[in-house]
Amino acid sequence: MEGSVQKAAQQMSLSAPAMSRLLNQIREAFDDPILVRSGRRMIPSPKAENLRLRLRALANEAESLLTPEINTQSQPETGWQQPALLATPPLSLRAPLIGGQPTPQQLANQLAELSQNHDPVLRFSRFLGILGRGAGNSRPLTIEETEEAFSLILSGQVDPMQASAFLSLIHYRGTAAQELAGMIRAARNHYQLNTATTLQADLDWPAYLSPNSPRAPWFLQAANLLAQAGYKVAIHGSNGSGSNGGKIEQAACALDIPVTHNLSQANHSLTGHNITYLPLTGFAPALASMMALYPLFAARSPVGDVVHLLNPLQARASLLGVSRPAYRELHRDAARLMQEYVQPAHRQSNLPVQLNVLSGNRDVAEFYPFRVTTLLSLTGSDSADIIIKALQEPESLPRIGMDSFEYWQAIWQGTAIDPRLETVITATAALGLMTINPDLDFEHCHNKTREYWQQRNKA
Question: How far is CA 311 from the centre of its chain?
Fold first, then answer.
């Protein structure tokens, strides 16, 4: 509960060294670290999380044994059994706080009794009860629990305040890999993305950009290089709303990349053009609506992590970009859990066999290769970290007389020359080629994509 050995010692009226000795004895007894450091806090290990509810039950039982029993007699029937004409408003749920809140054991029993036979709003409250009990009492949801909860949200069966509380509680505590995997499973089932298709993309390339980012989408030119080389590249994403909300669509049209409105159109586009851009609103409108809530909270939502791993066009490889280094492990761990939990009959058709995760300063894989970079890789269920050496950074040339979009177009058309940006484009394409062909190293792939770049306008 305290996240600190010293604070826990103060709660138990012990010295810090005495508490440290107790912790060491517990670790030895259970053969587990029990508490591990995360930043400035100590957080429970997975085994400690599993022990938590059993220990609380033991503590409640010990407390009840020491509490004198009070004999209570049932109240006699009075004949006044007519229910009120108006239902009690939801705020009456706060009433127990006035007369004394239920014990943890009573609350646990109440939550356990809420099964799938109950009203969806009541069923969903069980998950909020698990997430929102406070420090030392809450725990992450399991894959199955998260999948059920997020399915209720997507089907519109819960109160909007419940959905907001669910996303806020998970984000505030920090999304666990099994929670992210559960939400992805729910979304894929809700939008029928698990149905195997006759055509599979070679590369899934999620692109979820901040509408406030002023940077041009250089990754689209990298993806187009691979499409011109014969690979089928499926891009899906969004650019938020506002004045820059259509940036990806505008750039795609400038490169003759088809912008499609649904999964059927996207598959047709892959057949004829080897590349497509499918906005999130075209295949998952509810998720797009949740993503659009950012201005109301001014904070990330777990939905922003879910969309990266949807793989709507069943690509056999996926290249992700995440804006924070810590999120790389989260996405890879969630993808591994997805591989472990998926039905064997659909293992090859619905999930990427190869996943590479790049950390940058935007939520799309766009590689600036001028410093040493670690690429997190997942092949099936096997993880690896790939170290990519830094490339020499060419001089950045000033943009004169052109706005950002015009300069972006001029680089592709060859009417403007910028060696630094050309390196960004070819190195990004090299990561995509590495993801499709995991047996190839970065240097080999970069040599190939530089050839693609020189040949891009010769067709």
Answer: 13
Token look-up 């666990």 returns 176
- The boundaries of the domain holding residue 32 are 5-55
Q: How many CA atoms lie within 13 A of 307 on its CB side?
A: 33
Residues 152 and 19 in one domain: no
Q: Strand ranges (DSSP E) for 120-270?
A: 203-208, 233-238
In-domain check, residue 435: yes
Q: How many domains does the chain have?
A: 3
**CB contact burial 65-99 (16+ within 10 A = b; e otherwise):** eeeeeeeeeeeeeeeeeeeeeeeeeeeeeeeeeee
Distances (CA, A) of 254 to 201, 267, 425: 22, 21, 16
Please give the DSSP secondary-structure letter assigned to residue 276: E
**DSSP string over 375-418:** EEEEETTEEEEEEEPPPPPPPPPPP-S--HHHHHHHHHHTSS--
Report, as an integer, the average pLDDT of 203-227. 92
CB atoms near residue 106 (< 10 Å):
12
Residues 112 and 256 in one domain: no
End residue of a domain, out of 159, 174, 189: 174
Q: Do the Cβ atoms of 209 and 363 come closer than 8 Å?
A: yes
The β-bridge partners of 373 are 388
Q: What is each CA distance from 428 to 98, 162, 187, 310, 453, in whole angstroms?
A: 60, 40, 29, 21, 12
In a domain, 67, yes or no: no
- Establish if 416 belongs to a structural domain: yes
Half-sphere exposure of 150 (CA within 13 A, CB side): 29
Query: For 369-395, what is the mean pLDDT?
Result: 92
pLDDT for residue 86: 39
Residue 182 has pLDDT above 80, yes or no: yes
Model confidence pLDDT, tens digit, residues 401-428: 888 899 999 999 999 999 999 999 999 9
Give me the DSSP letters along 207-236: EE--TT-----HHHHHHHHHHHTT--EEEE
Q: Are 203 and 317 in contact (CB under 8 A)?
A: yes
Is 45:36 a contact under the CB 8 Å cutoff?
yes
124 band by pLDDT with thresholds 50, 70 and 90: confident
**Does the pTM exceed 0.85?**
no
Residue indicated by tokens 């920090």: 174
Distance CA 269, CA 234 (A): 9
Length of the chain: 459
Helix/strand/coil for 145 = helix
Tokens at residue 34, please?
């029990």
